[in-house]
Write a structure and sequence with these properties.
Structural class: mainly alpha
Number of helices: 15
Distance between the termini: 31 Å
Shape: globular
Largest sheet: 2 strands, antiparallel
Strand order of the largest sheet: 1-2
Radius of gyration: 22 Å
Helix content: over 70%
Amino acid sequence: MSTPLSTTDVLAADHRERPSALRRLAGRPELGALIAAVAVFLVFSAVAEPFLRVSSLGTVLYAASTIGIMAVPVALLMIGGEFDLSAGVLVTTAALTSSMVSYQLTAVTWVGVLVSLAVTLAVGLFNGWMLSRTRLPSFIVTLGTFLMLTGANLGVTKAVSGTVSTKPISDMEGFATCRWLFASEVTVGGLTIKATVWWWLGLLLAGSWVLLRTRFGNWIFAVGGDAAAARAVGVPVARTKTVLYLFVGFGAWVLGQHLLFSFDTVQSGEGVGNELIYIVAAVIGGCLITGGYGSVVGSALGALIFGMVSKGIIYAQWNPDWFKFFLGAMLLLAALLNSLVKRRAERGPR
């Protein structure tokens, strides 16, 4: 006959089964990005006095937001096990489409904005459809899309405008309201916050909620971890990945409108190479290249690190040529740390 467990025994067993708060923190994918963000902040706070000014905070947040808007959907896509190498030039496509449609059709700017949204979503739909139909790696599919968009951005712009940039549209109807939505700013106590920061926070909250609180979020982790196993238990793998590509298209549309209504004209060659920055921000934030693991909040921390470094180097009067070296080093260190954190999380509490 077994001896009944005492209350002390039950509490002790429960304590052994539940990991401590410290161990749970050590298994979070955002841990490395959080440590790196704090370290970068402390370094530039010590070496660059202007870095701590209130006005500098607004500049850093703006630089981070222009990366973070795309880092959120790119992180979700990477957690789902895929890449999008066309994300950088798609931002330029979004801006060019809005500008040229509005100018050439002599329509209000809102027409161009809505046509641009349809175009970016169509590109995302195309990437998702090609991926599911051909079973080619997303690297190949989106590399093809990248090259096609790069050529189309330049070719169409030169054919329509006669130059490599678009015509000004600031005198057109609807420009002021579009500028307010995508490129406005508000200053409070010396801190200037641009519209991109609010868009970034909105996408961050929406992405985190979807990933952690919805069934679709479970599907993202499942298809990124093992697509075949996910398909076997009824997860709509193709649909899930297509929706993620649509989200990337939406992020590109938002950022493209910001570029257009901030500067009035757009250069057709912009955006090339930015897709790597979005991917690096996601990796620094805890996303694994292999998929199935990562964090939307981590991608925001990765974008914040980019913002602090890009502006901190200027405030510290360092040679900006070392910026890309820093990015490469951060990418390698983040990838190693993410693998370590994942292995610790898979081993479970001890």
